[in-house]
Structures are given as C-alpha cells and as structure tokens.
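Project standup — Tuesday

K.O.: blocked on the structure for the chain from last sprint. Re-posting the sequence here as requested.
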Amino acid sequence: MRSKPNESRARKRKQRSTESEHDSTKPEHVSSEHVSREHEPSSTSSAAREAELPIEGLDTAHFECVFPTCGGICCMNGRPPLEKQEDERIAQNLDKFLPHLRPEARERIESKGYLTKRKKEGLPSLAVVKDWCVFHNEGCVLHKVGASEGNKWKYKPWRCVAFPLERSPSGKWHVRQWGLKGEAWDLFCLNPKESPRLARETLREEVEFVKQVERDRAR
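H.V.: unblocked you, prediction finished:
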C-alpha cells in the first residue's frame, strides 16, 4: 500500500517551508564542505543553469514538500549512508543533538552508536529506531540544530539535503518519481499526481545544492 497521509491532512498542504527536511540515497564519494556553506541564489539564467547541470525531469516532474503535514515521512526507514566527513562532523557535535532525540534513539546512540554495519554505496548507513531514522524527532534533529546556528544543512547528510534529486550510477541527475528509473520508494510525495507544481519551481535550493556537490567532486 502506498504511504500517504489521510485526506484531511493532505488538504492542509502547506507551501514549502525553509525548515523542510528530506531523506535520500545515491551518489559516490564527494566532499561535504558544501553542507557547511550558506546557500546563495544563482544570478545566471535558467538556460545557463540547465547547461551547467542537466537534471532529468526538472521541467516535467511534479514535487512539493508538505512537511510538517506529512510528519517527515521521508525520514522513515531511509537509512542514508554517511561520508567520512559527515560522520566526523556529527560525532564532533553529538552532544548538541542528544538532548533533542527520542529517548529510545538516544539510548541506541549511547549504547551502540548511530551507524550500522549495513552498507549503501560502500558506506555505513544511519541506524533506524522504531521505523524512524535515529536522528528523527518530529523532523530532522540535525536540520533543526543546524538551523538554530544559521545553516540548516550544516550537519545533514548531503543525500538527505538533495532529496528528491538523485544521481544515477552513470553520473546523471534526475528527479525521483514513481515509475521512473525503477523507483522503489512509495512515498506519496514522489507521486507526480500528488501536486500540480513542477520540480523546477519547488526544488530551487536543492538544484543549487547539487550543483555545488558536483563542483566539489570536480576539485
């Protein structure tokens, strides 16, 4: 059965919040320096941006984040892999996150850590506690703490920031949608019929972010 909030909640759909959180998977190793930098809107034309980094579906796919209406469902059983730099950054700031975690998640981290032996793309994945990411508590704790310090993406895994943008093994980017490229995740927000809004309109920040991902990889 598809994952979808009830109809009354769906009708209360809100415009995208600057505090919205995402989860995602994919790409190989990249520098994570970009997550500690503030997003700066590009002044280039849309045509120039498209030439700089083609993203399949940007002008045809439909997507709209409705957090908090959805409860942060993209954090449910997501298990994003962590780059070495991301792991180090979280470990160095762990004391900031612990007070904001669910009791069972904090207990898990204090006894076994926040990573598992499960691998994605050759990298260790974040743990899941009672179906939710270990850092989820009515939204992403990493996002909330970063936002309180002036940079909402400061501590988040870059794959979570990029969602629903994904890079294929061939290195090409696309917008995740039901039925596209073998998409297996049944999140309601990946249903193109769920929103009339085009990805180019709703994913401006994420598009700029993945461009930075690619620039960092090219260094």
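K.O.: great, moving the ticket to review. The two ends are 43 Å apart (CA to CA). The chain is about 30% helix and 10% strand.
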